[in-house]
Amino acid sequence: MFSRDALSYDPILLPDRCEISDSGMQNAAQAFYDKMRQRHTVRDYTDRAVPRTVIEACLRTAGTAPSGANHQPWHFAAISDPALKQRIRAEAEEEERRFYEGGAGDEWIKALEPIGTNAVKEHLTVAPWLIVVFAQRWGQFEDGTRYKNYYVPESVNIATGFLLAALHHAGLSTLTHTPNPMRFLNDALDRPASEKPTMIIAVGHPSETATVPAVAKLKKPLEEISSFF
């Protein structure tokens, strides 16, 4: 973690060392894949409450992600307040209407047709939690002096992936939402200009009638997404 104090390299023996056999690795890798392939982007939620302690534990997992120079350039704003969720929905839908009314362009709209999305974002008020991810483009000391963060998009993206996996592992469903522009989130959540909102994650339990688009089950095979040398 970045500090104004002079820090020096102080190596310690690797903590939490994991010793596992080859067969154990294979079983663990397969079990994790089997769990993660059950993850689906969900747009239909119940209003069933999710304990704050569950969200906190998942955010702690996100906070363990690697980051450039260990600066951890992220902030996660977790929102359960109905009035604030309603404000975010109203402003997000305003941006989405512009998007679907021509701001996106025909090709993008065409690509979204199999997903079945539109400008109405009911999940933003029905899901019990929204988590807004912010990327800290630079940091500030208490006197206002700035310091640089490194590999910010890469670091925040990794931490967000950790968060999504943790939420799924906890039995929750999610939806990543990226209205454009998202500057209204800084005002709504009182975040500084140094932070750029990257997405809104709706978190909760799927409704009994929740559906997913059939195309969402089409995943590229290993041969298409990887190369071995």
UniProtKB/TrEMBL annotation:
Coiled-coil regions listed in the entry: none
Stored Pfam families: Nitroreductase
Every Nitroreductase domain range: 37-205
Highest rank taxon of the organism: Bacteria
Keywords associated with the record: Flavoprotein, FMN, Oxidoreductase
Protein name (database record): Nitroreductase family protein
Biological source species: Ruegeria haliotis
